[in-house]
Amino acid sequence: MGSRGDTYVSTNRVIGMLQVRVPMTVLCGHINSPQRVVTTFCEMCVLWAQSFFAELVRCFPQLPMHPADLLRSVSLAKTLLLNLICKKRSTELLRHSSYVPLSHALAAVCITRCCYEVGVRYMPRLFRLARSSGNTKKLRSTALFSAILHRKVEEVERKVLPSDTPDLGIAIKEAMSRTWIDDI
């Protein structure tokens, strides 16, 4: 492919794998604490984000690198992950008299924050690729994408996070330590 579609295909492939590989029990509120469920969901988000940024690095020379295209892929993943957790798994658990102790809003924050945390680790590589290509438009687009991700995290966390939520910082650190593939 080598175009905008690569990040979409990669996103769909990873989300499809997560749908098949994540059992209901890991998200069950009767079996697991809310902190454990948040950590498990963050692990899923980190896996997706790693795959997304690795694909971005792999296809960087061919990508038009417009921030709107990249944000569309992030938005697609966010929608698919929210559907997986907040609709599909939640409905299945309700049928078994259980629940997912993860609100839609908290799940959205987890996705955005994990994408940002993984992106921070990949950004130096993306900036090196942009500089070495000599394309100032790609360099500006990479900087803009990074800034937009940072702003989205702040915006979502400020708007959404109530005080009684599990500690996201701990959950994300734990998720990254368990799932991080050091291929950068």
Task: Break the fold down into its secondary structure elements and pairings.
Layout: H1 5-21, H2 34-58, H3 67-95, H4 104-133, H5 136-160, H6 168-179
Task: Describe this entry's structure for a reader.
This protein is an all-alpha fold and 184 residues long. The protein is built from six helices and no strands. The protein has helices at 5-21, 34-58, 67-95, 104-133, 136-160, 168-179. α1 (5-21) runs parallel beside α3, α2 (34-58) packs parallel to α4 (104-133) and α3 packs antiparallel against α4. The radius of gyration is 17 Å and the shape is elongated. The model has no long low-confidence stretch (mean pLDDT 78).
Point out poorly predicted stretches.
Answer: none
What does the average pLDDT come to?
78
Q: How many E strands?
A: 0
Estimated helix fraction? over 70%
Approximately how much beta-strand content do the residues carry? Answer: under 5%
Q: Which features characterize this protein?
A:
mainly alpha, 184 residues, 6 helices, single chain, 75% helix
In short:
75% of the residues lie in helices and 0% in strands. By secondary structure, it is an all-alpha fold.
